[in-house]
Amino acid sequence: MRKLINLNSYFFVFGIPLTMIFLLILLSKSSVFQQNPSKLSLAITLDLLLIVPFVYFLLIRKTAIPKITIVTSFIVGMIISSIILPTEEQEVLSLIKTIAIPVIELTILYFVVTKSHKIIKNYKLENNQNIDFFDAMSLAVLQVAPAKVASVLTTEIAVVYYCFISWKKRALLENEFTYHDKSTSVSVILGFILVILIETFTAHHLLSKWNVIVAWVFTFLSVYTCLQMIALLKSLSKRPIFIDEQNQQIILRYGIFSEAFIPFSEIKDICVFDKDISEDETVTVFSPLGKLEGVNMLIETRKELIFNRFYGFKKKYTSLVFFVDQKRQFVNKIKDKI
């Protein structure tokens, strides 16, 4: 009965705004609109961007639906206005877009950051000390956007956060293990950054002789790639591998680029791996740098599992190789759990 009431409630909440949008679309296609397009274009624009979101707000204010979804209704209104209104009648819409888009971006960023800090605080109250800003941010972004979009948005915010904001040194907690102190990851990433900077300068000079716009687009993309590498480099020390005894799993991390959750019950074997990666094609390399850096650990699973990569990409594995600085302690710790 309660489920039926909730279903009717959500139908009412979403049904009224959708009906309003449908009626406005019909109005834009009517003969009345053709007779007076200027005034009605303005009215439809204001209805879609202001009245519909306001009505939606009144409908959700006492429900569990996140208030941030009002921004989504505003964006939907902008998209529909752009489609149904004649191009020559979109002056007001263009002005609103110019002002609103930066405001929307800042609003979403503010919501995600504040929500992330709140999530971290609540987790710590529940004695879960291992959650970090990236994890909390992922949970917060999922309240704003669908899963696939959330992965991209989380990555973009993480690049800014770890590149420019996160400077405080992080102390290791119990059951945490580093993977960057003794590996070649730092030197490889620094090498990437150096090569990108050199090639950017050279390529910009050559491309500018052909097309200045293309040259600057290439330079922008190269600089942003450098920022991603810097964010990855800084996140290595802030996102260690964690043996989560409470949830009976290993949380493997490689900065903000890779993350895997491996239940103890799915681990078939774990051992020190001393082979050359190129000699064993059956293993999957956890690091996004692939064979450019060494590995010293192998986990074999009972069934095929999936781990997360950059921008929400996923990879399957049954034999995963990676690097841990304290390899003996790590193996012994896991073997005691499985």
Throw out a few tags for this protein.
338 residues, alpha+beta, eight-stranded mixed beta sheet, 10 helices, 8 strands, 58% helix, disordered N terminus
Distance between the termini: 44 Å
User: How are helices and strands ordered from N to C?
Assistant: HHHHHHHEHHEEEEEEEH
Q: Rg to the nearest angstrom?
A: 25 Å
Count of DSSP H/I helices = 10
Count of distinct strands: 8
Biggest pleated sheet: 8 strands, mixed
Q: Which residue ranges are poorly predicted, with pLDDT under 50 across at least 5 consecutive positions?
A: 1-5
Percent of residues in β-strands: 5-15%
**What is the percent of helical residues?**
55-70%
Provide the number of structural domains: 4
Mean pLDDT: 81
Please state the structural category. alpha+beta
Shape annotation: globular
Structure description:
With 338 residues, this protein is of the alpha+beta class. It folds into four domains: 2-89; 109-165, no CATH class; 176-236; 241-335, no CATH class. Helices cover 58% and strands 14% of the residues. It is built from ten helices and eight strands. The longest helix has 35 residues, at 91-125.
Q: Layout of helices and strands, plus pairs?
A:
Blueprint: H1 2-28, H2 31-35, H3 37-60, H4 69-84, H5 91-125, H6 133-141, H7 147-165, E1 176-177, H8 185-210, H9 212-236, E2 241-244, E3 249-254, E4 258-263, E5 267-272, E6 284-285, E7 297-309, E8 314-322, H10 327-335
Parallel strand pairs: 6-8
Antiparallel strand pairs: 1-2, 2-3, 3-4, 4-7, 5-7, 7-8
